[in-house]
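Q: Predict the bound structure with adenine.
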Amino acid sequence: MIFHVLTLFPEMICEATSHSILGRAIKAGTIQVKPVNIRDFAINKHGQVDDAPYGGGAGMVLMAAPVFDAYEHVKKQIAAPNPPVIFLSPQGRVFSQPIAQALSCCEGKEIILLCGHYEGIDERIIEEIVTDEISIGDYVLTGGEPAALVLMDAVSRLIPSVLGKEASHQDESFSGENANLLEYPHYTRPADFRGRKVPDVLLSGHHAQIEKWRREQSIKRTKQKRPELLS
Ligand code: ADE
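A: Predicted complex:
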């Protein structure tokens, strides 16, 4: 899978994807993260990519032309005729595990992510190139980069072979049978930590009882912490 990220801060994208599981998947070639600096397509030699809003008001607006030129530059490298272009913005549909799952199977396996900045982005670029608008939650970030990183992380780990043996998404929250349940609690050694003991059932070796206990814990937790998931 290849993520092309149109951004004003390519270093943020490179740095944050160079560690842990994503870093390993990139080294192994399972995924590629290719940031494109929108400033490389600035309208003048001063590196200008933003301007004051028509109609007045505070802040600056990211201009359509540099974004469009960056997009055209990326599009030349993509075989598929109409790759998805996802604009990260608080106005988008709210990101979720089913959206991550759908994107992880995206046809052509190349996605363009557009990170906005400043007060906003010229609406005409959204009309012209954007195929989907995604928000990572109902709050406003200073830019789209952290949102693009969240999306790439959640999508990448669903690609076969990205997660090693040490982690698995078979029985985790928000997917499959557990679509509306939080995960059960996990424990590792020691069996007694400052007087807090690991539940006996987990030491019993009785797989059916362990399964039953985990399911019950998932339901209990969901009722306590996220009751809205059950309604
Ligand atoms: N850019 C600014 N805020 C955002 C959000 N909540 N989700 C996605 N992109 C954003």
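A: The chain has a mean pLDDT of 94.
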